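Predict structure. Input: (wild Malaysian banana) hypothetical protein, 246 residues.
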Amino acid sequence: MKEVVLHIYDVTNSGSEKTNNTILQINRIFKDRIGLGGIFHSAIQVYGDEEWSFGFCEQGSGVFSCPPGKNPMYTYREHIILGETNCSILKVNQILRELSQAWPGHSYDLLAKNCNHFCDAFCERLGVQKLPGWVNRFANAGDTAIVVAENAALHLRQAKDEIVTASKVAYRFMAGLASNSRATPESPSYSNRGSPRFQGAWFKNLMSIGAKPSAGTSEIPDETDDSPLYRQKPSELSQHNSRQNS
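Output follows.
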């Protein structure tokens, strides 16, 4: 059996120090203070010295790898051990090849198909628990109701004014990312996200019942290769980041 590790980052790749500080504030309030969620990037490590995730690119697979905790696009936050997989390294290589084909970079969607959704799919194939709900809760709140811990109501009342203000900032930020995440206008999940009705529903889902794409390219190991999984070269990650941010 092999340990499966989730690596989590604060999304701080906007190019604006003010925006990055706003994201960090959102994450401190919503995650660190009340345990609700935030704006995060995630990646999975199993076998070898690399983590695997998913991000936008115009051509090819959106599945990529980089050294654990070293994605240059974001600010590293923490890691969580999700359990142990019974999959051999050969089986993990096969899973990654299949996911690489099933997750093309152009299919990336901030709210519907992001890095956290990919990590959930990878974990399911590995036979371990999925990501904690708070990691992708801000995205999920755009489409469905969520469950919050029993003591959340008390914390929400204690910090009501601050949370309401931060929630508006968080929504504006998420809506801005969604509008720039290369989703097509024909996409049902894309068409209504800027409306006041969607904004109200997003906040209601977030509060009543209860991360920006990464980038990179990778080579999936050969089917018969039982060596440690491929580690992406830093130069390749930089080239992919440049394509995403252009």
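The first helix runs from residue 17 to 33.
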